[in-house]
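Hi V.,

You were right to ask for the full record rather than a summary. Here it is.
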Amino acid sequence: MPTPILTYETPFPQYPFEPEIIPHFKQSRAEELAEAIPPMFPIPGRQRIIPTLTQEVKDRGYKNFTIDLSTAHTDAPLGLRALGVIATSMTIIRADDTFDYKLNSPSNDATPAEKGLEEDQFEIEEIYITNSASSGKKAIIRVIWNPRLIRPM
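Predicted structure:
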């Protein structure tokens, strides 16, 4: 049990981390304050609360996009908008040579790609690829989406 702290202002001991007891706060004062300070939103009457079961919606669709790195690309779109999907994540499965990608807009910052890199922090509307030509090289990007989350473009 903590040691009581006695202070000059309070004649009774107070223990650390315990709320201070206000002896003069009564129900009538609470009702007076409730009338003086109206709620910001109307308070609903009695309502029946119905328990709701939720289930995580799993991703269902994916596509592996193969990129020919032997051809130079500058902000070339991968084609997600043409598919009409918004991806929830992407993973670089293979990267034989260096290339950069940009998410959602060609004006965004480029990210250097490497095998195993995964993006899953936000929705991906399009992926833009930039690389210099290197013969016989390719990259594979797996894009995952949920068909239930497809939005009209």
